[in-house]
Amino acid sequence: MNKLFTLFTLLTLAGMARADILINPNIVVANGGQGYGGGRIHVCTLTPFNSVYADAGRSEWLARQKVSRRCQQGQGNNSLFCEPAKASCITTTLDERLDESDDASTLLVFDGARQRGESLSIDRDIPDLARYGFANRISSFTVPAGWVVRFFEETDFRGGYYTRKGGEQEATDFNNRIKSVRILSR
């Protein structure tokens, strides 16, 4: 989501009135299947004629090279319009939580799927989510890296439970059935 927002912001800033957008759908920012979990990413675009080519990389140099290759696939090899030096680039962060809160070291629970809708930031054990108007409302959540959290179906940490580790996740196994939350480790 953050990648798309960044790309659309970049295109808006470029003043494009109408353009065909060709974005690399396979932007990979992982190392051996393990996500980096944040950090900087560089997004570069080239805009020959009415086409917009975009790609991303861990360094500006890499992003420029990737968008240049992508542009050349559409415009032809050695196209003057696809030189890496002509790319417009921005630097952004991969950690979406920085956009949503100042404190990225809290559990975020949402009443909608895919981390959308009303949310509650949790930094301590909550024996009764009803006190916060969130009992039986959790549909998705974001657990900070390194944390282990347990979601309980009853108040006061009783009943069936589901244990989850860091990352953005859907509450598919226990959607709208959680009444208390305990942070097991940080």
From TrEMBL:
Signal sequence region: 1-19
Cross-referenced SMART domains: XTALbg (SM00247)
The keyword Repeat is assigned to this record: yes
Classification via Pfam families: Crystall (PF00030)
This protein's UniProt keywords: Repeat, Signal
Residue stretches making up the Beta/gamma crystallin 'Greek key' domain: 106-184
Keyword Metal-binding listed: no
Family to which this protein belongs: Belongs to the beta/gamma-crystallin family.
Listed name of the protein: Beta/gamma crystallin-related protein
Organism: Aeromonas enteropelogenes
